[in-house]
Specification:
The structure is a homohexamer of 329-residue chains.
Chain A (H helix, E strand, L loop, with lengths): L11 E6 L9 E8 L6 E5 L3 E8 L2 E5 L2 E5 L3 E5 L5 E4 L5 E8 L23 E2 L9 E10 L2 E9 L14 E4 L6 E3 L11 E5 L9 E6 L2 E3 L16 E9 L13 E4 L9 H9 L5 E3 L2 E8 L4 E2 L1 H5 L21
Parallel strand pairs in A: 3-11
Antiparallel strand pairs in A: 1-2, 1-22, 2-9, 4-7, 4-9, 5-6, 5-8, 7-13, 10-13, 11-12, 15-16, 16-21, 17-20, 18-19, 18-21
């Protein structure tokens, strides 16, 4: 985690990854923590596109296409190969990054959901062209094949005066997400909370999906409203932006991360389970909550950093230890 | 409408139709009203499959594959070419029929909705084999190319002793429908209430969809919760099984039908509009309501019967006459 | 049927049709009977492509692309819009014609059958370029929108000196058909005998398929080897080239035709049934047999000629009258 | 191979593999040999689904979904992530295992073969729910990313009381396979013997296919009935369940395995070739034979075990040494 | 043609049509000639979308979404069901209309042509919202199922205050068309000049394409640069906006129209042919030319008006009469 | 590079590669330089198919299917697993080789370009069957999983007497390439120069494309005619057959190679830029030029040989150093 003066690049730490950047599949999940703006320093990622999800502090990203500023609750996406530098309007900035090696993030097909719903196209904002015209010795850092490469330029690389096309950074405020879910019974698959998807060649098994668990109403009757206990094909990397995640009553905080890899069983912790089991099923408004998930068809490999960091919850599975046996009754 | 003794066949009246039965596209909407069982009489439809939606009285359908009994709130589907006779367990039987000339009804792709939701496969029931072994002179009526053809058999045609395969009648109870909708804001497209779909070759524009508006919770905030005023590509034939349809406060009763053809503007009536406009947006449970829709990509032609029957609402568009002008304010 | 001097055009009679030539879907089945060559007369069909199946006498077709000669057991295909004239090497010529309004005939996807099987591409023969350089007053007859239009040219229209491309007439000898079928038990769907298919937009439901029932081995054990009794979605127009069709022991002769439209039940006649029911199931070589089928997803409309001709078998369904009841035993 | 007391897990040995379990593609072929049931021990494979093909002794698999018992001639499939233990009703159990990392096994599209044929869906059997309710210290072994991981539970993990869905183990008896093949001439591609297929994204090149060579009739005329000599794109791992494989007259026994990797030429051995070359081509019933093949689009890597085991046939290619030169004659 | 005071609606005359508006396939080609603006009169087409191609005078279309003004060289598209009125900024207005019953016009897939070329998305202009707030008795004319229906409103129907979405009228200036063609030899298919396409379900055979023949360079060497003589599957309806069409040296003028239906042979007239045959093949700039084509997969039926109007060129085929015979030389 | 006596196999050197031969994706680019024919030596590549592009000297390839001879300007393709030997009709032979591990090279879909254009199918030539009947001790070298394996045969492996099928070597003369490009303005994507494509599962991102920049006319007006400066997703390996590549005025010679990997910015060198910026935009014939490109969706890894060879241009990026700043003006 950042010490002394750390900018966005230096503050990036990789938690998990999968796939193969050279073959343009898979993704990596990073976290960042920075306390200074990038000065005379620029970044570009040739390995993948960056979906940035702050949970603390704003990021002001000066890109070749203009300026994209995001705050917690919002996300920003900077595509493969685009140069940018990150300013910090606030004292500190922390968040998650999904580095997508595969197909560009796109809105999912809504299918039966119809013409409107989930993340609506009109809420994605692309910057107005802006450029820097300055002579200076700057460092340009490029991530390529998993390494960072540094070069000196004698001018700002953000010297694109105008542009047209559809390959440009964008931002999205998750407050605009039109959440859709059961209005009768049962617990609906979290796929229904997909914001953006990086398709694999096989429908239903994305390279990586960006999923949110936003504020919403819960109204299911005759149902256990929390996520059911499950093992699944897709691997789930979760984070928290604000508030509490309903299936994890304690010890899941902003900046935290959980990984449930392919076929690793999981579900609500014992306390959440008990609360849900006995709750009166009246309409309930979930407020002040925003969890996120990077869900992927490939198995995630945690980094040495992730496996050895002090914050690792070695007793993570204890959260299920108190689940009693309910059958036979 | 049925007089004296009328069985299911004699009690069928066609309201609208489109497409071309010989080319296996389009559909027809019928209503039926019967007061006696079919005796020594059998029916089969070579033009299309029959989706039967009773709103009054049960139907007990003896088919080549076994017995399918349905009551209001349930539906039954008998495929093209299958012979059956209809018994009436109750004094009278009334309902709607969707005769689908196109691709067989199928469950829609759920896409992001996930592995469960809407109509779940396990709730569709197929009959146990049963047969009739009797010598009798019976009439077999076949619908073919829009006409009814009659023949005499000296035995029951329901003489199939056993069967295997996946082309068999089925029933479904709409009470098992897991309704999905917005749990945040906005009004979701009615496509999300699709129970069964007859695909056309073009995704998003079904030959005909069977849609229901079942009991459910309404929780949308900051929204006009009723259907918006719209003109659309698809044509909509609606009916009512029970209760009240939320966008039509009056004069829409079980057995009634409305047709909004391609690009015919429609929306809530003035009273429903006013009520929705001023409602407090707390969670609201819609109970005791079940409307249905046959939605189709082709323009519907009403029959002479439909256009001339006494029940025709010639002042139908008066329901919107009292809508005031709200802009400029 | 042809009287006095009748050439190929004058000898064509339409039996059934469906679809819509202007919209390029459906097909028509014709029969032809000719006793003279076309002299100073040329034909071209703008409505569809012609698949010609002789059962008596050879046809020598002089086309814009060269000469295609076919004999019984072979087929010839002349595409939409190609001019040709037909010479008769023998005294008389009779056969069937499938006029395909839809997608051009193509070899079906073999799928699991693999790289070789059924009709192999290398057995389809395209003519060497040949042309006529003559001044003469000739008649050119064009079929367009169901009518025949006649015009005079002062030269042969077969004046194409050379060509390249893949839109050219071809012939195929059904003796090269590699028949595939069960080698263990059961009766395999006749789709496995497909020679050429005109696709509709919907897999499994061709605009029209050309199917043959060629000489082959029958080895199914524990099975009723003949076609089962069935009603089906596709409509079947059958003809006979030579020998006997195994499910129709009598009264089906070369030049004959049967039509089993959508959902019309059919199966072996009583005599064939009895024979098959009691046969010893040793390997049996079906020789000297060649039946054909035009199978189509649209319902066929018979012509007035077909319905009124003297050869109509008004008691056709009598062939099933003697089928006894076998259940309950 | 198993010594002293060896259960199903301990008796598994890997022969070949390809692809990448973390990226959910490819497969591995194992053989097993066990002589005791698994006691207080459970297994689950997070890397792939297990298709188990016994050639000696029965397996009784207690799974989370119920009990699946298979004998030689049958196969069992246990999907990724499902816990089970294996009991041995007989003294010993030996067989092959296909561990499929890719898309779940599915029935192949039959295409022209029609509605019935090859492995029919109704012959696949899924277990009735059953569970174990016992307190005991048990070992649960999970295969994940190529390693076996062991954990202790204080109860049986087979504690699923009831279930619904379509992700459940199944069995299939190959005696129900309706073999389809040429009934005229030529040798048909072995793809026509496909029982189950794990699709890759590219039609025609499966991740892995499960293929059988079952008892059947051979009737091809004017043909060399055995497999032709070939090099091919797909790689072929073969095994034998019983009897003799027709293209390998000697030295291929139950439990044996052959690997012909991408573009490795192969075909009948010299003795089989000579026999086939001179055989009289009357109908011939192949009985008492059941060979299997795992065919895959990726190149297979043999394990050190496979390359070094005593049973390795180092002179395997000698089987073709005696093939004489037939051309020029 | 318009006499006295004729507005856009009254000045529409249908030339050819095909398909079926109720089944949402096919199209109609109209021409219009108007000399007054629509006053208190509005139009809407429920049968199809309108692609309007003026060759004389501007059209100022007030729509529910705002104002779209087009001049010769530009096109405007108003979708199915959108209300609008047409003002005439100039004394007169004449042009062509493609009424598309099928899938909405869309940009074609560019395939190998790449990311830019032909009609670029950024050159399509959508109006800024604008509305009319007026009380008046107005006539609203709606085209539905081939008929015009008239109703009185007491206010302007252009009362949409704001909108979002992607179903809105647009305009395009053909001067922005990036023409692509051979830069080496041969004559390229006119499909390469496609501006917009209404897809049918079958790739390569559009419901209707809008094609232009714009100013461009001709550089083909060793080639006959004009369209070759051809018969084709698609039917071609052509018009002229300005200048001369290179394959029709005379008698094709703005406002004229030609129809070459399915398999009707056509090509350059004799004079154009001779000129092209003997031209020196240096680079040549085609300027001051703009021809258009509505190309469709269905056969076009000309209207009685088209067949009987005084302007009909009954000797149209005389343009080829002087083509000499060049072979044998 | 070849010293003393070097045949085609010994003269192959690998420059870059990507993907995974065992998993049948990716490719490698090699160069070859030979001065003697292969004598008693044969080659076969099980890892991929070989697309051979000579820039100096002819190659006469004796294959199992017959003889394929190519000269500079032509290409030859020998598929995976086919045995051949290479004779040198000239003193030396040098060229490029694309070893394609993925889907076989195929002609790209032309889409709007129509029925003819780019590489036409009829210009691809397949050999007439030819075989060697000789007893001799020969060496057969097979490339498999990246290694070369050698074996001795006592006869020529080119002993295939006859063949049928569609898996056979072919050649193509790029002089037959019908180049298509802008005939109005702008610079068209190089994808329009695709000769052959090896599809990946994702349209638009080929496993590897073979692209040429052949002689052609440049006529774009108001445009910068050279390639624009770009970074892109695909990686580009280029070579030169003859003449000059228009965007690289100097230091790019036949036998040279450039690699611009994913997201590496590139464009015309400073001299080419200046020339193009100030050129008069009259039609210009590019003659005596033939550059090639292997373009691929995966990132290319250069070999140690490529990175260390004397010819490496370490100052390659100097070609852009003299580009002045033009904005602000």
């Amino acid at each position: 985690m950042p010490v002394s003066r750390t900018d966005f690049i230096d503050g990036l730490v990789t938690m998990v990854g999968n796939g193969n950047a050279a073959m343009h599949c898979g993704f990596a999940a990073h976290i960042y923590a920075a306390n200074v703006s990038m000065v005379d320093r620029y970044f570009s990622d040739a390995d993948g596109e960056l979906l940035i999800v702050p949970y603390e502090g704003r990021l002001r990203m000066h890109t070749e296409f203009g300026i994209v500023q995001i705050a917690p609750g919002e996300i920003g996406v900077i595509q493969r190969g685009i140069k940018f530098r990150v300013e910090l309007p606030d004292d500190a900035a922390r968040g998650y990054v999904c580095e997508n090696y595969g197909a560009f993030f796109n809105l999912p097909e809504l299918g039966l959901i119809g013409a409107n719903g989930l993340a609506n196209p009109r809420d994605f904002l692309t910057p107005v062209a802006a450029f820097e015209d300055r002579d200076a010795t700057v460092e340009v850092v490029v991530k390529f094949m998993g390494n960072l490469w540094s070069a000196q330029y004698e001018h700002s690389p953000l010297d694109v005066v105008a542009w047209h096309g559809n390959y440009a950074p964008y931002k999205y405020d998750t407050a605009h997400f039109n959440a859709v879910n059961t209005v009768s019974f049962d617990h609906t698959d979290p796929s229904i909370f997909t914001v953006l998807t990086s398709a694999s060649g096989i429908p239903g098994t994305a390279n990586v999906d960006f999923v949110i668990f936003p504020p919403r109403w819960l109204v299911a009757e005759h149902s256990f409203r929390l996520p059911w206990f499950h093992r699944n094909f897709m691997s789930e990397f979760m984070g928290l932006i604000r508030g509490q995640y309903d299936a994890k009553a304690e010890s899941f905080v902003p900046g935290g991360a959980s990984l449930h890899n392919c076929m690793a069983a999981h579900g609500p912790d014992a306390m959440s389970f008990e609360r849900a089991r006995t709750a009166e099923l009246v309409p309930e408004r979930l407020d002040d909550t925003l969890a996120i998930m990077f869900e992927t068809r490939f198995v995630c490999h945690p980094t040495r950093y992730a496996l050895e960091c002090a914050a690792l919850q070695r007793d993570y599975d204890e959260c299920w230890a108190d689940l009693p046996r309910y059958f036979p009754t």
